[in-house]
Design a protein that fits this description.
Elements (H helix, E strand, L loop, with lengths): L1 H16 L7 E4 L5 H4 L11 E3 H6 L2 E3 L8 E2 L13 E3 L2 E2 L3 E3 L8 E3 L8 E5 L5 E3 L9 E5 L10 E7 L6 E5 L5 E5 L2 E8 L1 H8 L8 E6 L1
Parallel strand pairs: 3-5, 4-6, 5-8, 7-9, 8-10, 9-11
Antiparallel strand pairs: 1-2, 12-13, 12-16, 13-14, 14-15
Helix pairs in contact: 1-4
C-alpha cells in the first residue's frame, strides 16, 4: 500500500512538470470570468477551450484584463507557455515571480506588480522590462541556467530523452534517496528510490530513447 501511495505521489509531481498532451484542456474560456478571458488569444481555433498545444504556440499574454477584479496570486501556469516573447503580468501582490521557464521573453510588463521583490529569469533571457510605477520595493533579478546541472548534491547524473530539449538530472545526497532536478528546479524531492524516480519521470519510455550522458 505504501509503495502504491509513493508511486501515485511521484506520478502527480511528474505530471506537473512534464509536457502535457497537446489535446488536453489547459483552460476553458468563461466570458464572465476576467482571468480566463486573458487567454482568449491563445484559443486559436475559437472553440472556447485553450489546449496545452495552443498554450505552447502562444507568443503573447496580457493578464491585465479586469484590473483589481483579476488579482493573480499563482503564475505556475506560465511554464506551459515556453514560447512567450511578450508578457504583461497583470495585477498581483506576489513578492516572487519565477519566469525562468519563459526563456524567449523579449518584452516584460511589470506595471501592476507593486509588491514584487524577486524576479527570476533564464540566464540568457534579457527582455525589455517595464517596471512598476511607485514600487514599494526594489526588484532583485535572479538568473538561472535551466540547462546547467545543479550544485550541492553528492551525486548527479544527467539524462536526456529524444523528445525533450532539456536534460533532467537524477540527484542524491546519500545514495539511497533520489530526486529529479529539471529546468533549474527540484521537480521531485530526494525522497524516493532511484528506480521509482526513473520509472515515474520517464513514464515507461524505452531505454533506447533515454541517454545517460554524464555522471559525477
Amino acid at each position: 500500500m505504501k509503495k502504491n501511495i509513493v508511486t501515485i505521489l511521484i506520478a502527480m509531481l511528474t505530471m506537473a512538470v512534464q509536457a502535457q498532451d497537446a489535446k488536453e484542456t489547459f483552460i476553458k474560456i468563461d466570458y464572465n470570468d476576467m482571468y480566463t478571458r486573458c487567454f482568449l488569444l491563445s484559443d486559436y481555433n475559437g472553440d472556447g477551450v485553450v489546449t496545452y498545444g495552443e498554450a505552447v504556440k502562444t507568443t503573447s499574454l496580457v493578464m491585465d484584463m479586469g484590473g483589481v477584479n483579476n488579482l493573480i496570486d499563482d503564475y505556475s501556469f506560465l511554464r506551459f507557455f515556453p514560447n512567450l516573447t511578450s508578457l504583461s503580468v497583470g495585477n498581483t501582490v506576489v513578492e516572487t515571480l519565477d519566469l525562468s521557464y519563459n526563456s524567449k521573453l523579449e518584452r516584460l510588463d511589470l506595471t501592476n506588480t507593486m509588491m514584487l521583490k524577486n524576479l527570476t529569469l533564464d540566464a540568457k533571457c534579457n527582455p525589455q522590462i517595464i517596471f512598476p510605477r511607485n514600487t514599494i520595493n526594489d526588484i532583485t533579478i535572479h538568473r538561472i541556467d535551466i540547462v546547467a546541472p545543479p550544485t550541492g548534491y553528492a551525486q548527479c547524473e544527467k539524462y536526456e530523452a529524444d523528445d525533450d530539449v532539456y536534460p533532467c538530472y537524477i540527484v542524491t545526497n546519500d545514495g539511497k534517496k533520489f530526486g529529479v532536478y529539471y529546468k533549474g528546479h527540484i521537480a521531485i524531492p530526494c525522497e524516493y528510490s532511484k528506480e521509482e524516480v526513473m520509472q515515474s519521470w520517464f513514464s515507461g519510455e524505452s531505454s533506447d530513447r533515454i541517454k545517460k550522458t554524464t555522471a559525477k
